[in-house]
Design a protein that fits this description.
The structure is a homodimer of 231-residue chains. With 231 residues, chain A is of the alpha+beta class. Chain A folds into 2 domains: 8-70, Orthogonal Bundle (Arc Repressor Mutant, subunit A); 85-221, Chorismate lyase-like (Chorismate lyase, 3-Layer(aba) Sandwich), CATH 3.40.1410.10. The first copy, chain A, has helices spanning 8-20, 33-40, 44-56, 85-91, 110-116, 162-169, 186-192; strands at 29-30, 60-63, 67-70, 76-82, 96-106, 123-132, 135-144, 174-183, 199-209, 212-221, 226-230. In chain A, the strands form 2 sheets. Chain A has a 6-stranded antiparallel sheet with strand order 5-6-7-10-9-8. In chain A, strands 1-3-2 form a 3-stranded antiparallel sheet, covered by helices on one side. In chain A, strand 6 and strand 7 (135-144) form a beta hairpin. The longest helix of chain A has 13 residues, at 8-20. Chain A is elongated, with a radius of gyration of 24 Å. Chain A starts with 7 loop residues before the first helix and ends with a strand. The interface between A and B is large, with 53 and 52 residues. Chain A binds a DNA duplex (19 and 19 nucleotides) through residues 6-8, 32-34, 42-46, 48-49, 51-52, 62-68.
Chain lengths: 231, 231
DNA sequence: AAGTGGTCTAGACCACGTC
DNA sequence: ACGTGGTCTAGACCACTTT
């Protein structure tokens, strides 16, 4: 009988240890919550809290009646923190700068129209550059649906980026993100200050609020950019 | 007095609604747990569970004594599910295939040595290709520390990829991941079946177990690959 | 039918950071 | 010092799913 494991972090640690040490090998059924609570000398709720945390990390599979099993293929969940670009740059200790390239209310081209599923209305198209210590850092190409972002048409976006303004002023209920690699066109290369054809890291993001599309944006990062994540 | 909000998901939903509707605008201090519990007619623990979930999603900042505030800059947390490559391909409905290119026990070059911080010993270097429906999908270039992966030297990796074997047989306590874009060298282009210079999506991952480095790997995905994430 | 995890409760004490 | 969130408890009932 193990004793003194009374807080959920300690329980979690012990559970992780057993998984790691293969005392509970992949696929194995582990004791139920009540038994573990008895063994550890704590309440079942405490065990539940710990097991739930480990399960959220992907290392346990829990099913009612069937019990808790050690995951066979622990799907690694990496969490990306996608902050406002200004913040990201300032956190690196660099000086942030911003330049608006274009801001137009236009009817979107077909691909954008398809993604945002907007009606007949025009969308606001904004293109801008973000700088870190005067070096181009990212090129932002964004379409904004005025129906999804009140007051957006009054924003000049000449000093504050759409990236930042939207996050502050526009609620959203969901979104999806795609990460990819893209060869710089000559125009992009010129704007970002790199070579044509250079491999650029691209982040494409669509955001909606309920049934209304809010914005779709592509961020092209200068050559050499790497996005960090933790396991 | 709102009534009938008795389970934590319902409380969470109501909290999200208030944030979204700007009833609780960004930066605002929201009522404390006890008051909300009274208002909703449930136990404080239920409110705590809900608020904790919303805070984990990045929409609330909670501090003892200072209370709970709506986050000013809701850092979007996107979660990447990084599965075994075989699984990823099969989930797309494609047929998975694998080919080992190289498997050698060698002294690592300086950059790898620096990352893994291993001693004098040799590392296992494995290069392999993953196919989806006979089309090259990803190129795996991996260094494995025998000290961190028992029995790895007995694995031929001719039928099962190191990607899969390690996940199944080698515990780890942590890791870090970097995502970037990379121009294909001529050799890489040949192996992946693309053009030299094509922009390739790269995932670089280092894994360790306690103080021991386990493996460092670079996965180069064929041109056109996009990694999906959800908000 | 039965056993498992999922959740709620009411109360309590604690840790922490602001006041 | 004191108010806040963080956590633990013991018990209870419920929902799901497998047997």
């Amino acid at each position: 009988m193990t004793k003194g494991i009374r807080n959920w972090q300690a329980v979690q640690q012990e559970v992780l240890r057993r998984i790691n040490a293969r005392e509970w090998p992949p696929g194995a059924l582990i004791p139920n919550e009540a038994d573990l609570a008895t063994e550890f000398g704590c309440a079942r709720a405490t065990v539940n809290r710990a097991l739930r945390a480990v399960a959220e990390a992907g290392l346990l599979d829990r099913k009612r009646r069937a019990g808790t099993r050690v995951a066979l293929q622990p799907v690694a969940r990496a969490t990306l923190s996608i902050a406002v670009i200004r913040q990201e740059i300032e956190e690196k200790g660099a000086r942030y700068d911003y330049r608006l390239l274009e801001r137009k209310l236009v009817r979107p081209p077909a691909p954008v129209h398809r993604i945002l599923k907007t009606g007949e209305g025009a969308l606001l198209h904004v293109r801008a550059l973000h700088f870190a210590d005067d070096v181009a850092y990212a090129l932002e190409d964004r379409w904004i649906n005025p129906a999804g972002a009140p007051a957006v048409l009054d924003q000049p976006f000449d000093a504050t980026s759409a990236n930042e303004w939207l996050l502050e002023h526009t609620p959203y209920t969901g979104g999806d993100i795609a990460l990819s690699a893209h060869n710089a066109t000559s125009a992009e290369a010129q704007e970002l200050g790199g070579a044509e054809g250079a491999a650029l890291f691209a982040l494409t993001r669509n955001t909606w609020n309920g049934d209304t599309a809010v914005t779709c944006v592509r961020l092209l990062f200068a050559h050499g950019y790497a996005m960090q994540a933790d396991l």
